[in-house]
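Hey,
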Amino acid sequence: MRRQLHELANVFTGVMIAAGLLSQAADREAIRQYAANICEDSARGCVLVRELRMQLLTTVIGMEGCDEGGRSCGNTPGEDCRSNCGEV
């Protein structure tokens, strides 16, 4: 799933770039506005992918237990590892 999220983020990035170029080349205000809307929505999509990726990583780390530098931090699988090990 991590790979698919990465690929989805790449798709949103491509859409944002294309919409930005369209906005610059457009000669009508309506088309520029449509392109701006596409850019904004693509940026929201990127944020959602980032949030899903963090949730996935947090879940995976929680299922495996927490380990920092080869040492167990005492959390059981499913607990929030950030409480004992610092930021994930």
